[in-house]
Amino acid sequence: MFELSIAFKYLVPRWRQLSVSIISLISTLVIALVVWLIVVFFSVKDGLEGSWIEKIIALTAPVRMTPTEQYYHSHYYLADTISAASDYTPKTIGEKFAATKTNPHDISSDEEIPKTWPSADIDEKGQLKDLVKIAFNAANNLTGIKGLAVSSYETTFANLRLRLLRNTQHQPSQQFMDNASFLGTFDANTPAMARALIPPTAKGFNNLLHMQGISSDNIQEDSPSSIYQINTAVLHSRLESFFQSISISALKAPVEGWRLPRHLMPTNGTFAVCAILKGDKPIKLILPQSAYQLAQLIDQQKINGLNAVVAELTIKDSIGTVVINGKDSLLSSWIPVIIAADTILKADLIEKSLESAKQPKELKFDVSTTIQGVTIKGIATLGTLEIAEASLKPGNTSSPIAYASADMKGIVLPQDSIFGDPILLPRGFQENGAAIGDQGYLSYYSPTPSSVQEQRTSVYVAGFYDPGIIPIGGKFILAGRELVSLIRSSSHQEEAYFSNGINIRFDNLTDVYKVKAELQKALQDAGVAQYWKISTYQEYEFTKDIIQQLQSEKNLFSLISLVIIVVACSNIISMLIILVNDKKLEIGILRSMGTTSGSIATIFGICGMVMGAAGSLLGILVAVLTLHYINELVGLVSRLQGYDLFNPVFYGNTLPTALSMEALTFVVITTAFISLLAGIVPAVKASMMRPSAILRAE
Amino acid sequence: MKKNTDIILHAKKIKKAFYNPVHIKILDDVELTVRRGETVAIMGRSGEGKSTLLQVLGTLDTPCSGELIIDDINVTAFNKSHIRNQKLGFIFQSFHLLDDYSALENVLMPARIARKNVSKGSVAYTRACDLLIEVGLGDRINFNTKLLSGGEKQRAAIARSLFNNPDIILADEPSGNLDKETARQIHHLLMNFANTQGKALIIVTHDPELAQLCNTRYRLQDKQLVLQTLCDLFL
């Protein structure tokens, strides 16, 4: 095409038109930069938003049905309170669903129905409408929704008090963590929950192992005055079950180092060691793994005010010789040889020690490690060694730790154990020092006719999960259905309307409006719409604000990006005006040969479009690369700055890397449109030029 | 439609004035008729309006009033570009070749504007090569125009003006920037084309030698065209 070929000719940079070339290069780069920024920003933001929303939904559900006030005042709900068949207590939605009788009230034996009650809502057959079953059926009968799952949920409040037993400086210490918390049931079978579960850390395994040796009898006391060791018989069974589900593969030396037992001392070998001197006699030798660690060690010891020097330890036929400042001395047996902190030892449990150990510390392991090229190998007692690597044995069923199922379709919460009910805590607890295996109790208040009594139930930490940015997330404890139900019913919180309801889950979030509309219709058809409130995840009391926040942020950022695209593309205007002035004579010549003014306008319009397109293409290309390596880039910048660029609490450990199609479309369309607009002014200017004026001026 | 006359260009009562900064009349009721194959020279003093007249005749400029009929077609704002492309060829004093293009590409430009196929081996391509050989640039076909001498540039411009086989060639001081010898060569080339191919040629010039070669000569005087005899030239 004629216009296209001329336009390309004009766009090819030429030495003679250096200014035009530089300006067009800069405008293209500016557009590329803006496009890059917007695409990367929106992609990361969309990804984060997606994972936040996923976590919100992991804790709740995309769509929920909650009973309205009318439900709690309905004949259907109240009937249980006067019926012997229901033990005169109201039922939860779960219980109502499981109940065989819709109307438990027996006219012949139960007390009369009070006049103040609203009349029973009956269907055309004269039967009381089963509000819960109708709702469940409506949800279960939804068609075309992938991964549909309907279940009831309960939420309640309780105070969590955890006892944290730690060994600090070899002294067992006891701390408490008190937290007023929300307590909720959760659907274990959701992939989102599986992804939100935080895998157990070495610290968790360590804590759990040590807790095996401690009695939980006094756990419900306000502050247990002493820490009781359990008797050996119980310990053995506990340890046995522990090692049935957990395997330990490596141990590590604690912060203060690990004293190498004499029998593990190699028979031959030479080591560079850090010797701590008193006078000129060594009192302690520390064995580092590398020369770098040695230098660090010496610095560290010097900071601690000790006289530390580099020494050489030679062992020949089990006789050690230490060379300090050129002086030899024999390594006497009372001088401890310490393995430096964090040295990893491969470990394998010696099963027999399970029976002989009186404490978890006395467990024995086959350990091996290589220090400065010399292998150290043998049997070691656990003692102060810590677990460095451990894993849940695949296929076990008695794990005391919550774990994601192998197919990542859900999580498995342990059964009740000797420690109490297992609970999952949000990650904030882990950051504040709680660890897997910590025990404590949940306290709640149960009103009786004459007083309010505090009740306590033992729990232990079976894992941590990431609640994302849901505002109540930091306080939302997940527990088994029975526990929540127990606490909720005994503390009489039934009528807090959000505390009980039906979760409707499905795979595809875009289905929410359809699901809501269809449910609404089904309930209306059944004549029970007034008893249920259907809300989508955007409408929950505790998510509404954050979702609206996300949406308004998105609108705001879209506006901002529109503005910066306009600014970037406006460069095109100035570039094209310069180009038009530069090409004035050529325009005149082309006009004299019969080029129409429309063609001239098209030529310059194309120039603008091509620049916009080239800029956005370049920007998108770089954006794709950036997204691909975003975590490496962020890591690099964080290292340069010396702190985390993105707080992992909010942003997760890795940033999302998926390209947001929405952002891409937005950018491509706006850039094309605005660069076209930017091209119009100069193009019209060019086409309006009178050839006579141009050619006469020459 | 069969053309009943051999009049190719007819300008009726052309008036042209500029309003910037004051009202200056340049042309007043100029009448001009040019027949096919006729060569016309327009002479006059500098600033008299010769170039303006030529631009009006070449549709590059619009007259304030009056009518211009080219090949029985009344020129309007809408058919101007097409007429320029198909019926007119321009030659300028400063050649006005397109930079960054070769001589061949310059000659092909009118064809490209007319959306003709100009790929190598096409009819247009062959014609452009032939034309360049004819004007004596056979060995300069693919030279960038920047590398051509003044005379060569004007030859290329002549080839370009002839490319779409126009009826009228308008030349504004075609040899003004050339030395005498080169100018003479250009004059002969132009006349030769006009005579052999039956093109009307309208030349604005100062050069009596060139005017002498034309069939008809006018002098632009007092905003009017006055027919000149051969003797008037040398007065």
Give the SSE layout.
The complex is a heterodimer of chains A (698) and B (235).
Chain A: H1 2-11, H2 18-59, E1 63-67, H3 69-72, H4 75-78, H5 93-98, H6 131-140, E2 149-168, E3 171-184, H7 191-196, E4 197-198, H8 202-211, H9 232-245, E5 246-252, E6 258-259, E7 269-278, E8 281-287, H10 291-303, E9 307-316, E10 319-324, E11 327-330, E12 337-339, E13 344-349, H11 353-356, E14 364-371, E15 374-381, E16 386-392, E17 403-404, E18 411-412, E19 421-426, H12 427-431, E20 439-447, E21 452-465, E22 476-479, H13 481-490, E23 500-505, H14 512-526, E24 532-536, H15 541-582, H16 584-592, H17 597-628, H18 630-641, H19 648-651, H20 661-688, H21 691-697
Helix pairs in contact in A: 1-17, 2-15, 2-17, 2-20, 6-14, 15-17, 15-20, 16-21, 17-20
Chain B: E1 7-18, E2 24-35, E3 39-43, H1 50-57, E4 65-70, E5 73-74, H2 80-87, E6 88-91, H3 103-113, H4 123-134, H5 150-162, E7 168-172, H6 180-197, E8 200-204, H7 208-212, E9 216-221, E10 224-227
Parallel strand pairs in B: 3-8, 3-9, 6-7, 7-8
Antiparallel strand pairs in B: 1-2, 1-4, 4-5, 9-10
Helix pairs in contact in B: 3-4, 3-5, 4-5, 5-6
Description:
The complex is a heterodimer of chains A (698) and B (235). Chain A has 698 residues and is an alpha+beta fold. Chain A is 41% helix and 24% strand. In chain A, the strands form four sheets. Chain A has a seven-stranded mixed beta sheet with strand order 6-12-8-7-9-10-11, covered by helices on one side. Chain A has a six-stranded mixed beta barrel with strand order 2-3-22-19-21-20. The longest helix of chain A is centred in the N-terminal third of the chain and has 42 residues, at 18-59. Chain B has 235 residues and is α/β, with parallel strands linked by helices. Chain B is built from seven helices and ten strands. The termini of chain B are far apart. The interface between A and B is medium-sized, with 24 and 30 residues.
